[in-house]
Amino acid sequence: MKILLKWLLNAGALLLVAAVFSGVQVESFGSALWAVVVISLLNTLVRPVLILLTLPVTLITVGLFLFVINGLMLWSASGMLGGLHVAGFWAAVWGAILYSLLGLAIESLLARLFPQQ
């Protein structure tokens, strides 16, 4: 139940990013749900490899390069889906930053709703 709620809230967060930032466009809530699924898969499968390959750059930038990797994940998802459009690389980075901040808020909310015992 927690995962389903997390996906629904993340889809809403992606729609909110699209509403406040013109560089990201989402056609519908269904498109946002598919985008969340694809982003989750990319973050599970591809992101760890990218983090490992770019570890020196990430260490030099004190972790700030992770925002670039998050932007690449969002940009890649937009290339795979028809309902998600990102204007370019830097739009993807800024959209990913906003999406990450909303994701932190969602994680905090879910931790309060579903406390671990």
TrEMBL record:
Organism: Comamonas avium
Pfam families, per database record: Phage_holin_4_2 (PF04020)
Record-linked InterPro entries: Phage_holin_4_2
Membrane-crossing segments per the record: 57-77, 89-111
Keywords recorded for this protein, A-Z: Membrane, Transmembrane, Transmembrane helix
Top-rank taxon, per record: Bacteria
Protein name from the UniProt record: Phage holin family protein
Keyword match Acetylation: no
